[in-house]
């Protein structure tokens, strides 16, 4: 029986495993510090499509096919797919995963969606609802700028607190513990989802959609502290505490907020948005963001570290800023949400 | 142990129960055939807000508070909330449920979202991930027209195949079987979620976003037939097979598609979009639609029939058309998705 812990967390008695992961990324990401780690990149960011939206769908489909291929699993063997993206009505996901013909649950958690998808995939695998679950998310710089900001041709000036949406998609094949034994293994054999901490929506009243790090930091703090309390842990129990895309601005706020709760995570913290681009040469201001940012960083960089045993336990906390152009124009604040996933080497 | 059935379904060994349900609806819905059944309606459709979006958020919050109140359950007792709406980036849900401070999973399945939310809430309750789960969805005529079509002031002509988005929100408090015994009961004591059939995305290549019934009918057929096969049932095993919002056009297509698979559901079929408005007097063309349509019809009309035992077993199949103004303008097709929920009197 799986155990609920504290107010928001679950620790799996039979922890599901991540048997494979795949990353597909764009040209700017290919030139960044993690560039050589991605499974597939594309020089024109269109991935064979005519539009940014279709390009994003193609990335999702490729990431899923790659993750399935690495584990030698046909799509028919996947019980449920959990996926999402940043676009209105999640069309990148709907159009991207449709050809796989896997029963699917569409998600929206802004840039926290990779955590939401992994949480639900892990929960369903651990509950015996199927052998294999697929979690996939994506974002695309071109489609996101169109969705949230200005047409690229305007070349509008960006404040230093702004993020650069990552062009990328990450897919993760999650298997029930019982299923993973005996079958041909994927590219990962030693990574399990030990537990999850589902996030609450946290609204500190900030309204600046060009400073998403500040909007999301309170939610990241809330989920991290809740994870510590629910699981009776502290920063010392994790080799890394990885947020999704707080960036340079959000990170410093997170450190302050966490310190106010009596913890110091500075030595353990890593932010995917700060890892994926080079601050000096790539001019991405606060760092990377988007549903794809945490997903491709997890698939390409974090999971191999856990697989090798270099990191034994990681708290992965993708963070999302909940807003739309409509809510922004109507003067609403930008609440945040963050979902925590406990990943362990076994 | 819960049992997976066939390719897409689950039958719960310890079926979770719906302990309470609440419906909040707009003025046109109040004048319709179900008008007297809703828990709360509002004559100006603004629910105390300044914008349609905020009005929709207020409806969601009210529906949740009403459902919780009927069962005498505080929000803190709810482990996870599953919610969604039609708006870009799901802001009606984010802004609506934020004050409840319940850990939440944001969903997007277009008008199928009430089924998606009930499926995941039921799956999590049955898996022992918490005593109480909340499922909530909404739609609003004003916010949906703005999101998908034309400013209301244009008074643009609508084709006869077009739907009228329902202003409404339905919330459902789902409890684990073990939790429901012993605690003070909600307004429902005899309705259980016996199983689910998660839907696949089905794309027949239709591109007319003003004919959503035709776009969604193939997905409804796919899920209904899959449910029959997975659970070794046919139309005779259900008192009603209830689709979300196929409307008059979609219903006739569904009948033909299902007949092609060797079944005849005409005597058992009901469509929420056809029930909620009066065809003769309310001028809503193909019928109602939106995440709120199936949700408020379930809460106000269907669940009481199951509660009383008039209907012993119902297959509830909300249907969604997966599109956005961007995908439509780029010439993409409109795929559909439908999730099936088996509701039983016990």
Protein model, in words:
Two copies of one chain form a homodimer. With 346 residues, chain A is an alpha/beta fold. Chain A has two domains: 3-180, Stage V sporulation protein AD (Peroxisomal Thiolase, Chain A, domain 1), CATH 3.40.47; 194-345, 3-Layer(aba) Sandwich (Peroxisomal Thiolase, Chain A, domain 1), CATH 3.40.47.40. Helices cover 34% and strands 23% of the residues of chain A. The first copy, chain A, is built from eleven helices and 17 strands. In chain A, the strands form four sheets. In chain A, strands 1-2-10-17-14-11-12 form a seven-stranded mixed beta sheet. The first copy, chain A, has a six-stranded mixed beta sheet with strand order 4-3-9-7-5-6, sandwiched between helices. The first copy, chain A, is globular and about 55 Å long. In chain A, 65% of the residues are buried.
Notable characteristics:
Peroxisomal Thiolase, Chain A, domain 1, 23% strand, six-stranded mixed sheet, 346 residues, seven-stranded mixed sheet, alpha/beta, homodimer
Summarize the structure.
By secondary structure, chain A is α/β, with parallel strands linked by helices.
In this structure, how is the largest beta sheet of chain A organized?
7 strands, mixed
Overall shape of chain A: globular
Kindly report the name of the CATH homologous superfamily of the largest domain in chain A: Stage V sporulation protein AD
Greatest interface (CB-CB under 8 A), with counts per chain: A-B, 60 and 60 residues
Mean pLDDT of chain A: 95
Low-confidence stretches of chain A: none
How many domains make up the coordinates of chain A? 2
Q: How many H/I helices of chain A? A: 11
Radius of gyration computed on alpha carbons of chain A: 18 Å
- CATH architecture descriptor of the largest domain in chain A: 3-Layer(aba) Sandwich
Percent range for helical residues of chain A? 25-40%
CATH class of the largest domain in chain A: Alpha Beta
What order do the strands of the largest sheet of chain A run in, or round the barrel if closed?
A: 1-2-10-17-14-11-12
Oligomer: homodimer
SSE-based structural type of chain A: alpha/beta
Annotation, overall tally of beta strands of chain A: 17
CATH topology of the largest domain in chain A: Peroxisomal Thiolase, Chain A, domain 1
Strand content of chain A: 15-25%
Order of helices and strands of chain A: EEEHEHEHEHEHEEHEHEHEHEHEEHEE
């Amino acid at each position: 029986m799986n155990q609920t812990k504290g107010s928001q967390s679950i620790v799996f008695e039979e922890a599901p495993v991540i048997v494979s992961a795949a990353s597909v990324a764009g040209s700017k990401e290919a030139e960044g510090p993690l560039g050589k780690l991605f499974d597939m990149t594309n020089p024109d960011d269109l991935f064979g499509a005519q539009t940014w939206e279709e390009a994003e769908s193609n990335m999702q489909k490729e990431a899923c096919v790659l993750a399935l291929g690495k584990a030698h699993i046909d799509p028919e063997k996947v019980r449920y797919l959990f996926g999402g993206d940043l676009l209105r009505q999640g069309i990148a996901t709907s159009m991207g995963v449709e050809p796989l013909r896997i029963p699917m649950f569409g998600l929206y958690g802004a840039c926290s969606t990779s955590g939401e998808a992994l949480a639900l995939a892990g929960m369903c695998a651990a509950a015996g609802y199927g052998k294999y679950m697929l979690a996939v998310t994506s974002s695309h710089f071109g489609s996101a700028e169109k969705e949230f900001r200005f047409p690229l041709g305007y070349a509008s000036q960006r404040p230093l607190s702004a993020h650069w949406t990552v062009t990328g998609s990450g897919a993760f094949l999650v298997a029930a513990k019982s299923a993973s034994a005996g079958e041909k293994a994927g590219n990962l054999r030693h990574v399990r989802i030990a537990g999850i901490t589902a996030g609450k929506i946290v609204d500190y009243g900030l309204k600046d959609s060009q400073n998403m790090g500040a909007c999301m930091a309170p939610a990241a703090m809330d989920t991290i502290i809740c994870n510590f309390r629910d699981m009776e842990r502290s920063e010392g129990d994790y080799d890394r505490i990885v947020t999704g895309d707080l960036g340079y601005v959000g990170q410093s706020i997170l450190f302050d907020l966490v310190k106010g709760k009596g913890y110091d995570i500075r030595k353990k913290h890593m932010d995917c948005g700060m890892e994926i681009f080079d601050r000096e040469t790539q001019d991405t201001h606060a760092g990377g963001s988007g549903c794809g940012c945490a997903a491709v960083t997890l698939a390409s960089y974090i999971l191999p570290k856990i697989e090798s045993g270099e990191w034994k336990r990681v708290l992965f906390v993708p963070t999302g800023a909940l807003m739309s152009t409509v809510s922004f124009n109507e003067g609403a604040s930008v609440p945040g949400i963050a979902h925590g996933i406990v990943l362990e080497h076994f």
